[in-house]
Q: What sequence folds into this?
């Protein structure tokens, strides 16, 4: 299993656990909010590089 697949499975598991423990909207906010916050925490130069690099090259 690739690292991306492991992250995806983990994200789904966390989302289902949060949905079960809390409301749907809180789980959705966490699932969407964490990646958005991580993206906004990057420098502008890192954001440009991230947009420029293809998805296959991100794991290198």
A:
């Amino acid at each position: 299993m690739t690292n991306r697949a492991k992250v995806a499975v983990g994200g789904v598991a966390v989302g289902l656990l949060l949905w079960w423990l809390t409301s749907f909207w809180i789980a959705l906010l966490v699932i969407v909010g964490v990646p958005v916050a991580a993206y906004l925490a990057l420098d502008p130069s890192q954001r440009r590089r991230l947009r420029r690099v293809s998805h296959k090259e991100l794991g290198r």
Q: What stands out?
A: The two ends are 16 Å apart (CA to CA). The chain has three helices and no strands. Residues 17 and 28 are 11 Å apart (CA to CA). The mean pLDDT is 80.
